[in-house]
Amino acid sequence: MTRIARKLRREPTLAESRLWERIKGSQLGVRFTRQCPIGPYVVDFACRSKRLAIEVDGGQHADSATDASRTRLIEAHGCRVIRFWNNDVLSNVDGVLFAIAQELALASNRSDWFERDEFPEIPERGTPLKS
Tell me, what CATH number does 71's domain have? Predict the structure, then answer.
């Protein structure tokens, strides 16, 4: 699994690179890891301290039954999984960051995360972002 994670770190997608530039180095107040093994899978990003996994998906993941079972298994390992489409990261990275901040706030029960106004309003959790 580590070999796969290393390969994925060397060859990120454009969306993964763009998001990583905005979350690396504790920019959101917590540390994220790229291409992190969780159980038999490798998630795109993970915040181990908040048990949050982030997946950045391309069009091949639309209506994927395997993604649903993958999510259930990762959640069985104690991690909350949130997913974003590549085009959402590329066209609305601030909205994606706000959604991640909301999940982190829920994980840490810190309401002060919601008092920021530098991020645009986004749809409720689970609703795909619009370009």
Answer: 3.40.960.10
**117-130 average pLDDT score:** 49
The tens digit of pLDDT for each residue in 66-118 reads 888 889 999 999 899 999 999 999 999 999 999 999 999 888 764 444 444 45
Q: How many domains does the chain have?
A: 1
Does a structural domain hold residue 127? no
Contact between 117 and 87 under an 8 Å Cβ cutoff? The reply is no
Distance CA 51, CA 83 (A): 14
81 is a domain residue: yes
Burial code of 96-110, b = ≥16 C-beta within 10 A, e = fewer? bbbbbbbbbbebeee
Give the pairing of strands 80-85 and 52-57: parallel
* Rounded Cα gap, residues 98 and 103, in angstroms: 9
Q: 9 lies in a domain?
A: yes
Structural domain contains residue 121 = no
Mean pLDDT along residues 54-76: 80
Q: Give me the pLDDT at residue 64, please.
A: 65
- Helices 14-23 & 93-108, crossing angle to 10 degrees? 50
